[in-house]
């Protein structure tokens, strides 16, 4: 998957920089929030151009990791193209299915190397 070759993914996967430094370098703010059970996470762009990624603090760590990668895929590929907030009820859209595939690929990769 091409998105895995992006500099952001490479920086996250190679482990040479601490997580918070990678996020700051790419203008991404990550928050663990008390979200409703049906909302695992979401991403938006602020007026200042920073990305904000919120993860549900009420789901398990493995799911949070998958949701994080899913949302990062949106930051890299989808939000720059769409120009608007992606709705919560769009799980059957192509870009949502692709983001799930990227998250699953990363999850399998981490299971092999971890």
Automatic annotation (TrEMBL):
Domain of life (superkingdom): Bacteria
UniProt protein name: ImmA/IrrE family metallo-endopeptidase
Source organism per UniProt: Biomaibacter acetigenes
């Amino acid at each position: 998957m091409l998105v895995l070759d992006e500099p952001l993914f490479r920086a996250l996967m190679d482990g040479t920089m601490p997580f918070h430094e990678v996020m700051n370098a790419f203008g991404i703010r990550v928050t663990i929030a008390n979200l409703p059970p049906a909302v695992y996470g979401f991403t938006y762009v602020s007026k200042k151009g920073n990305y904000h990624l919120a993860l549900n603090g009420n789901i398990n760590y493995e799911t949070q990791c998958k949701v994080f990668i899913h949302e990062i895929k949106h930051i890299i590929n989808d939000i720059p193209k769409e120009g608007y907030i992606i709705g919560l009820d769009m799980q059957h859209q192509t870009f949502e299915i692709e983001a799930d595939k990227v998250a699953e690929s990363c999850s399998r990769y981490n299971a092999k190397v971890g």
